Amino acid sequence: MEVNMSAEQVITEIQQLSSAGESLNKKKVKKSHPELMRSALHYFPNWDNAIERSTM
Question: What long-range pairs does 20-27 form, CB within 8 A, spacing at least 24?
């Protein structure tokens, strides 16, 4: 699986989506930001873990 984002970029993007009031629902993010989802699942065990890391 090819990814174009670093783990830091994934965290930053999740933080930006959250700050903008966008839903972090897995299905919605997968549809609206597929590259973010692909990269997040490359670096983190699951989507919830990526969200958790972005709030640390």
Answer: 24/51
- List, for residues 34-51, the tens digit of each pLDDT value: 999 999 999 999 999 999
CA-CA distance, 5 to 38, in Å (whole number)? 9
Q: Are 37 and 29 in contact (CB under 8 A)?
A: yes
Domain residue spans in the chain?
7-54
- Secondary structure (3-state) at 25: coil
Q: Which residues contact 5 (CB under 8 A, 6 or more apart)?
A: 13, 35, 36, 39
pTM, two decimal places:
0.90
Residue 21 φ/ψ region, left for φ over 0, alpha for ψ in the -120 to 50 degree band, beta for the rest = left
